[in-house]
Amino acid sequence: xxxxxxxxTLRRTPNTPDAPALQASAGLSTAAYGSAADQYSxxxxxxxxxxxxxxxxxxxxxxxxxLTRGARRCEGCGxxxxxDVPMRRAAALSSGGAVAGIVVTLLLVNLFAPPAPPAAxxxxxxxxxxxxxxxxxxxxxxxxxxxxxxxxxNGRLAAEAVPLAKALDGKSFDTTEVIKVxxxxxxxxxxxxGMLKAMAVWPEAxxxxxxLQAFYDDLARRIDSGLAASMNSTGAYRKTAKGILTSLKDxxxxxxxxxxxxxxxxxxxxxxxxxxxxx
Length: 279
Hints:
By secondary structure, this protein is mainly alpha-helical. It is 56% helix and 4% strand.
């Protein structure tokens, strides 16, 4: 009788491939089929682990939770994200890129700016007591760019003496403002030091090159030492500001020497204003 019932069921559903369903309709047990099929159907709670979403999802860098690409915040740990990157890391990369861009721009502008045409020697006549003006020295283009660039940078460094002196003279010392000044000066100091190598191609500039190197090294040491202190260390930043003002008093002499060198080749240097704090 069971055989007749199974044959009757198969005739009614000839195209049905589901063996468990056929058994159920014939009154047979489905336990053997159901338990075997479940063993080979793994279910992944994490879609990334299952390989289903490899381009539309990513893991949170902090807690590992699977997130949809473009998410602004992790639902698990609360980490804020920008372009699938933690906000702090993105800010650090952006800040580092901005600083590098400023330094590269300064170097390119000063190294590749067109030099001013040299002044021509003037003939005052054969009967003149003075004769010809001194011959114009042919300054190598790299040295010319380095002298021009360091002069401009020294002018910016000298200008920072004003906010530093103001902070020292104030009733309450503004540590935050001094830190901003030190960071600006750190960028200019490193940019100026990077130009000195180009000055070595002109022997007459060896003395100026050595003096600028010593100036930038001393300034960078004071700045780095100051920025290493805690923001709450008012005494440390006050001491740093005083030391930097002392170092900046070398700028007037360096500027005068640079202009004397530039005059040998008829080179026009950018104007520099020396604040009263450095006189």
